[in-house]
Amino acid sequence: MHLVIIGGSDAGIAAALRARELSKDVRITVLLADDYPNYSICGLPYLIGGQTPDASKLAHRTTFPAVDMRLRHRVTAIDPAGKSVSIERPGGTTELQYDRLIVATGAHPVRPDIPGADLPGAFVLHTIDDGLAVLDAVRRHRAGKAVIVGAGYIGIEMAEALQQRGMHVTLLSRSDEVMPGVFSEIGAMIRERLTTEGVEVVTQAGVERIEQGMVVEQRLVVFTTDGRRRPADLVILATGVRPATDLARDAGIALGEGGAIAVSDTMATSHPDIFAAGDCAVTRHRLHGKPTWISLGTIAHKQGRVAGENAIGGSRTFHGIVGTQSLKLYDLVIARTGLSDTEAREEGYEPLTVEIGAWDHKSYYPGATQIGVWITGDVKTGRLLGVQMVGRAGAEVSKRLDIVAAGLFHGIGVDALNDLDLSYTPPLSSPWDPIQRAAQDWSHAAARSG
Amino acid sequence: MHLVIIGGSDAGIAAALRARELSKDVRITVLLADDYPNYSICGLPYLIGGQTPDASKLAHRTTFPAVDMRLRHRVTAIDPAGKSVSIERPGGTTELQYDRLIVATGAHPVRPDIPGADLPGAFVLHTIDDGLAVLDAVRRHRAGKAVIVGAGYIGIEMAEALQQRGMHVTLLSRSDEVMPGVFSEIGAMIRERLTTEGVEVVTQAGVERIEQGMVVEQRLVVFTTDGRRRPADLVILATGVRPATDLARDAGIALGEGGAIAVSDTMATSHPDIFAAGDCAVTRHRLHGKPTWISLGTIAHKQGRVAGENAIGGSRTFHGIVGTQSLKLYDLVIARTGLSDTEAREEGYEPLTVEIGAWDHKSYYPGATQIGVWITGDVKTGRLLGVQMVGRAGAEVSKRLDIVAAGLFHGIGVDALNDLDLSYTPPLSSPWDPIQRAAQDWSHAAARSG
C-alpha cells in the first residue's frame, strides 16, 4: 500500500507518523511545497520577536524515519479516477500513484482586497518563508514604524514581537475592541496591556488602501477609515486565513463549512480513498454538533493522527473540538474554551455569563495573583457552555482552563465542575479552584435569574 | 429549623455557608472547639517556614454573616434521641437542641506509640495552636536541630519550612523512600532535592523512643531503629492522622472504613437527622467504588457543601474522589491523581505504567523545563487509572494534572486523553500536551505488551 500525503505541516506529519507507528509495511510519501517539514508556524512571532533566534529550532521534529519526505514538491492536481497526483518539483514535473491519499494542504493567509495590499513591505505571515521575509524587514527597520492590520491572535502576538524588537507599532482593529473572540472586558485588558508597552492600538479602524510613500522610497502609507494616513516601514496583514482547497475542489472533492473540505468523523472525504485533515478540512464543534472551520495546530495534529490511522485501514473517530485557545501577551495569559455568550445565543442556548476574580493560590502564600474567570452556562439546562480566563504567566491559567475543556468535552453542567477532585496545596491553588468558585457563583446567579 | 454543626474547619464552614446560601430561614449554629474558625491548616508549614508571618492570614474567611459562630464551645456528647448536644464552654457547660446536626469534627494527629512521644519539644501539627507552639519553639532554636518523624506530605513540607528557618533538619522515613504515595522514582527526586538543600534524609528509619537529653536540659534525643541517637531541639511527629470520631461513636453512629463515620452519598449517617462531612467521614473512591478514608481539605469542602445542602432538605450527591493531591517543595511541584500501580493491582486491575519526559512548552521559546509524567492504565480494558507528575513551579504541573483528574472523574480510557481539545500556544504548551504524549506512549506500549 502506498499512502501519499499532500502537505508536511502539523496534520500531514501527524498522519505520516501515526501510519508509520501502526504499520511497518505501508509505503509513506509526504509531498511538501516548501523546505520546512513539520515546522511550528505558531512560533513565527517568536522568531520575529527574537525569543527564538534560530528558525531551524521551529521544527517540531527533524527526522522522519521510514517516511519519504519530498521537499519542494508542489502538487498541482489530484486525479481521483487514476489515483495519482501531478507534481511540480525542481527540474520539472512528475506524477505519483497512490492507494490512499491524505490532503493536508493547510490554509492560506487572506490578503485583504484593498489597493496596495500586495506592495513590497506589506507582509502576510503564514509560512516559514513569510516569517523569514518579515524578520529581514524588521532587521532593516529596527527603530521604524510598523502597522499591523488585524487584532486577532496573530496581530496581537506580532504587536508584542515588533515592539520587543524596538519598532513603533500601531495595531489596527476593525472592531470596537481587539481580540473579537473573547469578552470585550478581556479585549480591553489586552488593549491596555499593549498600550502600556507603547503599542498604539486603534479600534474601529479599517484600512482603505496602502500606498507607496512619496518622500521616502521604501516607506508605505496606510490609509485608514478614520481618515488618517499612517506611514509604515512595514505592514503586517494579519486578517485571517482561509482553507487551501483549490486542489481538492478541482478534483471534485466536496467542500463544506467555510470552503473547507467536507469530512466525516473518520476524516474521509466525498471520494473513496481520499482523506483530509488539518486547516484545509472542516471540523465539528461538540457544543452544537455542527460542522465548523477553524485553523489551529491542536486540531490539525488530532485530525492528522486520525486520518493517518484510517487511511491505512483503521477506524478511529475524530471527536471534535470545544473551541479551546490560548494566548500569552507579555506576562498576561488569556485562554478560552467553549462558546462565548454571543456564540451560545446563536446556537439557541439561553446563556448567562458570570465573572469572578479569584487568587490563583492562597493569598497567604507569597506571589498570589488574581485570575479573572468568565463562566457561561445555559440557564435552561444548567449546561456548561464555556469559560474565558485571564491571569499572569505562572498562575497556571492555560492548564486551569483545560480542566474546563476536559469537562466541556464530556458535556457536563456548570454545577458538575464542583464535583471534580482537583489538586490543592496553598502555594498552587485553593480548596475550591477558581473555576469551581466561578461555577458556584454562576449557579447562585442562575437560581436568582430563574 | 435549627442546624447545628460541630466543627468550624473546612467541612463545617462549607456546610454552614451552603445552608445559608440556600435558605434565609434556617438557624445555623457552628460549635468550634478552638478560636480559629475556617483556618487553613494546610498553611501551617508556611506559618512556620516564614512565608506567612501572620497566623491570622491563614483564615479562609473571617466573617460569617448570619451564622452563629461559637468559639471555644467543645461538644462533649451527642444525644440523638433528645436531638441535643452537650457543650463545654468558658464558664461552664450547656446543652443545645438541634433539628439537624452535621458532625464535622475533623481528624486528630497520631502520636506514635513510643516512649517519649509526648515529651515537651515533641510536637504534632494539626491545629493552629499546634502551629503556633511549633513556631515558638522554632524561634527559640533558630540554628538548632530538628528531627521530623514521617516523610509524607506534612513531613516533607515541614522539612522545607524548618530548613528555610535555618535549622539543621533530619527527616526520617520508615519506608525505603520518602513520600510513599508516589512512585519511588519521584520519591527519590524529592529526597535528592531535600538533600541538595541540606536536609538530612534517612530512609528505613523508625523511631524506638525519644528521651530527654542529659547534658542539655531542653534537648531531646531520638533513638532510631538504625541504632543511631539523634539529638534534637525540636521533634515533629508527622506520622499521620486518624478521624476524630469519639463523639459519633459514643452516640452510636455507625463507623466505617478507617474508623471514620460511615456516610451515604448524601453525607447522611446511620442516624436520622445527623450528617457527617470532612476528615471525620468516609469517602468513596471513584476508581474502585469502595469506601475509603483520606484526610484532605478539598474533600472536606466538597462533603461539607453537600451535607449543608442536604441537612436543610436538599438532595445533592457527593460524587467521590479520584485521589488527587499536590505538593510544592522548593521549586519542584509533585502531583498525583488516580491509583498508583500498586493500588491498581490491589483493586484487580492489570496496570501498566509508562514514564515520559516532555517539555512543559515548546523548547524553542525560552524557559522550557522538563516535566516527568507517569501514566498508569489497565491493559485489559485500556481504562485510565492514574497519572503522577513532577516538574518545576511555573510549568503548570498541578493544573495540568487536574486535566487528568477531570478525565478520571468521567472514567475515560487512556487513549481518550488524546481527544481532549486542550489549549496550546508555544510559550505555554505543545500541540500535544505532555499528558497526551504520555497517553500515546502508553497505548503504544500496551499494544506491544498485549
Keywords:
homodimer, 450 residues, alpha/beta, FAD/NAD(P)-binding domain, Enolase-like, domain 1, 5-stranded parallel sheet, 10 helices, redox-active center (chains A, B), flavoprotein (chains A, B), oxidoreductase (chains A, B), FAD-bd_OxRdtase (chains A, B), oxidoreductase activity (chains A, B)
Task: Describe this entry's structure for a reader.
Two copies of one chain form a homodimer. The N and C termini of chain A lie far apart (60 Å). In chain A, helix 1 runs parallel beside helix 7 (297-311). Chain A is globular. Chain A has helices at 10-22, 44-49, 128-140, 153-164, 184-196, 246-250, 297-311, 341-346, 397-409, 434-449, and strands at residues 2-6, 27-31, 68-70, 74-79, 84-89, 92-97, 100-103, 107-109, 122-123, 145-149, 168-172, 200-202, 207-212, 220-224, 229-232, 234-237, 241-243, 274-276, 283-284, 291-292, 325-329, 332-338, 351-359, 370-378, 384-392. In chain A, strands 3-2-1-7-18 form a five-stranded parallel beta sheet, covered by helices on one side. Chain A folds into three domains: 2-43 and 58-107 and 242-311, FAD/NAD(P)-binding domain (3-Layer(bba) Sandwich), CATH 3.50.50; 122-237, FAD/NAD(P)-binding domain (3-Layer(bba) Sandwich), CATH 3.50.50; 332-449, FAD/NAD-linked reductase, C-terminal dimerisation domain (Enolase-like, domain 1), CATH 3.30.390. Chain A has 450 residues and is α/β, with parallel strands linked by helices.
